[in-house]
Amino acid sequence: MKAIEARDAVLSFGETPALRGASVSVAPGEIVAIMGPSGSGKSTLLHCLAGILVPGAGEIYYDGRRVDTLNENERSVLRRDHFGFVFQFGQLVPELTAEENVALPLLLGGARRAAALSEARPWFERLGLAGLERRRSGELSGGQAQRVALARGLVARPGVLFADEPTGALDSLTGEQVMDLLVASAREQETTVVLVTHDARVAACADRQVIVRDGKVNALVHA
Ligand SMILES: Nc1ncnc2c1ncn2[C@@H]1O[C@H](COP(=O)(O)OP(=O)(O)OP(=O)(O)O)[C@@H](O)[C@H]1O
C-alpha cells in the first residue's frame, strides 16, 4: 500500500493562483475525498499529486519518492506504472471495445494482447458488466461506461487511483453504485484513492474528507 502527499504546493495559471500552499497527506490504503467550492483548486491539487502538473513551489511525494522533481518522461512512466485514473466522463477510447479499453493500461505497460485481455475480462463479472465486453463506448450507458473506466483505472493494480468527479455525469443511484464498486475494489486490492467530488454523499464513502478553499487545504473532517 502506498502513500501520496503534497507539501505546501503552490501553482498559478498565469496570473491566476490555483494553489497557495496546499498540503494533504494520504496514508497507504486510505480513501480521501477532496471537497470544496468550484474553482478552489481541487482538480489542480489532484493533478499535482498525480504528476500531471508540477507545482511552482512545494513538494509532492509518492511512496516516499519525490515526484515534482522528476522530468516529464519520468513522471509519465510513474503515472503509467503506479497510478490509475477515472475522470468525470469515462474518456474511453471510442474505437476500442470495452475489454480493449480495460486492457489498455496493461498493453501500455508492455503486456501481450492475449494476457492483457485475459486479465481485463474478470473485471466485467466483478463490476456487473458481463456480456458487454465487445461493446464500444457509444453502445454503453453512462453508468456502464463509467464502470468500464473504473476497471481500466484499477486493472494494473495501481498504488494510487485518482478519481476526478467520477460520478459527476451520473444520476444519483447510478453514481452510488459506481462509488460502492470503486470503494470495494480499491479496498480489495489495497489501492490508495484520491477522489475529487462536489457530492457530499460521494465524499461520505471515503475514509476522510479534506476541504480545499482558495487554493489551500484548510479544514479536515473525519468521516
Ligand atoms: N488550465 C487552466 N488555465 C488557466 N486557469 C486555470 C486552468 N485550470 C484551472 N484554472 C484556474 O485555477 C483555479 C482552480 O481551478 P481548479 O480546476 O483546480 O478548481 P476546482 O476546485 O477543481 O473547480 P471545479 O470544482 O469547478 O472543477 C480556478 O480559478 C481556475 O479558473
From TrEMBL:
InterPro entries in the cross-refs: AAA+_ATPase (IPR003593), ABC_transporter-like_ATP-bd (IPR003439), ABC_transporter-like_CS (IPR017871), ABC_transpr_LolD-like (IPR015854), MacB-like_ATP-bd (IPR017911), P-loop_NTPase (IPR027417)
Membrane-traversing stretches: none
Keywords for this protein: ATP-binding, Nucleotide-binding, Transport
Keyword Nucleotide-binding listed: yes
UniProt domain ABC transporter: residue ranges: 4-223
GO molecular function: ATP binding; ATP hydrolysis activity; transmembrane transporter activity
A GO cellular-component term linked to this record: plasma membrane
Pfam families assigned to the protein according to its UniProt record, in alphabetical order: ABC_tran
Gene3D superfamilies registered for this protein in UniProt: P-loop containing nucleotide triphosphate hydrolases
The protein, known as: ABC transporter ATP-binding protein
Lineage: Bacteria, Bacillati, Actinomycetota, Actinomycetes, Micromonosporales
